[in-house]
Structures are given as structure tokens and as C-alpha cells.
Amino acid sequence: MKIYPGLLILTVLAACAGNSSSVKQTPAKDSMTAMTPEEVEYDTALVANKRDPVCRMPIRAGIYDTAHYKGAVLGFCSSSCKDSFLLKPDTYPLVMK
User: Where in the sequence is the domain holding 54, given as residue range(s)?
Assistant: First the structure.
């Protein structure tokens, strides 16, 4: 009688293992799209600065994110530069247009 529960467990595990190899689970296209950030191109004429205040990259090379500071919209090359700026905005010199 002790052999039957063990045999039953092995049978269930073997059946489950056989089914998992034949079924491929791929995420739906909508869920994959939702995970990737949407790339937005900002017009450089809409921001007040010529260079990223943190890394000093020219804004004309591309704007990844923006922030409002002292009534102006500032452009940043990356979210990490924006986050660094927002922690201590007075430590970074601004090159305005």
C-alpha cells in the first residue's frame, strides 16, 4: 500500500513535465509593449536650456526627459541626469537660450 502514493506522485509529475515542454508560454504583445518605455521626441525649441545641466550634453543631440524649474522647462538627455538635477538643482549651472 505504501507504493501506491509514491507511484501516483511520480505519474503526476511525469505528466506535468511532459505537458510543459509542448506548451510554450509567450507574453502577449500588449504586455511586452507596456513594459518598454515609450520614446517621445521633444522639440528643442520648447525647452529653455542649451545644454543638459548635469552632463553638459548639447540639447540639440536629443532630449529624453523634461522638468519644470523656476518657471522654465528644462531638457535632459536621460532620466538619471534629470533625477540628479532635481535632488540639488542649485548646484548645477544653467545655460539658457
Answer: 3-91
Position 78 in a domain: yes
If one counts every other C-beta atom within 10 angstroms of the C-beta of residue 56, the result is 13
CA 72 → CA 33, 34, 61, 68, distances in Å? 32, 30, 20, 6
DSSP string, 72-88: EEEEESSHHHHHHHHHS
Domain count for the chain, please give it. 1
pLDDT digits (tens, 9 = 90+) for 52-84: 999 999 988 889 999 999 999 999 999 999 999
* pTM for the predicted model, two decimal places: 0.57
Tell me whether residue 96 is in a domain: no
Burial class of residue 26, CB neighbours in 10 A (0-12, 13-18, 19+): exposed
Cell of 89: 538643482
> Residue 97 falls within a domain, yes or no?
no
